[in-house]
Write a structure and sequence with these properties.
Helix content: 25-40%
CATH architecture: Alpha-Beta Complex
Number of domains: 1
CATH class: Alpha Beta
Number of strands: 8
CATH topology: Cyclic Phosphodiesterase, Chain: A
Order of helices and strands: EHEHEEHEHEEE
Structural class: alpha+beta
Number of helices: 4
Length: about 220
């Protein structure tokens, strides 16, 4: 993982590696896990280029949250609870909806899995941001178009040699055609989670999370 993407610094405070996030989690949907298992069969052949993500780590990021508010206060459990209530209020009139997941492609040395259509997810993204902001949390600037995607692996290192570049190209080819048929799967978005997400970079890049508040679409 590029040093520019690291949340903290080696030897620095442990809290720098943990940030609040709003995630959609697919662990209760076996058809999604089956799709990513097929992708894992491919990524596991390229341990020098990409990680092979475990089922427990699969997620789609709806919104990241800055760990410190505009007032300079570090987000704590009480703030997260208040934010959960604010977001839940804004989800009350958004009914669960279906999405398609796939196909997968290589982006640099990472594995990206498209999620579409974007209209339901874009509205979810808008409402989540509205609730988090109302609760006083600081967010990155809004995206003009919410990029709906999941990851099936993170780049291990920069592909800065001819050998690694060739391996990355082969990974891209295998991801593009290796899981046909069954390049896509369906999923239901009926809840999201407010979590503490941890970035791990040693020995391999990985994002893990502790679930804190489950928020349901279509419920007050």
């Amino acid at each position: 993982m590029s040093i520019k993407r690291l949340w903290g610094r080696p030897g620095g405070p442990d809290e720098d590696w943990v940030r609040p996030h709003v995630l959609w989690l697919p662990q209760d949907q076996p058809q999604v896990l089956a799709c990513f298992a097929r992708l894992r069969e491919i990524t596991s052949r390229y341990p020098d280029v990409i990680t092979a993500m475990a089922d427990d780590d699969l997620h789609m990021t709806i919104q990241s949250v800055r760990p410190v508010t505009a007032a300079g206060v570090r987000v704590d459990a009480a703030m997260l609870k208040s934010a959960a209530a604010a977001v839940q209020q804004r989800l009350a009139r958004l009914e669960p909806f279906s999405v398609e997941i796939g196909p997968a492609r290589a982006s640099g040395s990472a594995g990206i899995v498209e999620v579409w259509p974007e209209n339901g997810l874009a509205e979810l993204y808008r409402r989540v941001r509205e609730g988090l902001t109302a609760a006083g949390l600081a967010l990155p600037p809004a995206e003009d178009h919410f990029w709906c995607h999941m990851s099936c692996g993170y780049g291990v290192q920069d592909t800065d040699t001819p050998e690694l570049a060739a391996r990355s190209d082969q990974l891209a080819s295998d991801l593009g055609r290796g899981i046909r048929p069954g390049v896509r799967t369906n999923a239901t978005v009926s809840s999201i989670w407010l979590v503490w997400e941890r970035q791990r970079h040693h020995p391999l890049p990985r994002y893990t999370f502790d679930r804190v508040h489950q928020l349901h679409l279509g419920q007050a």
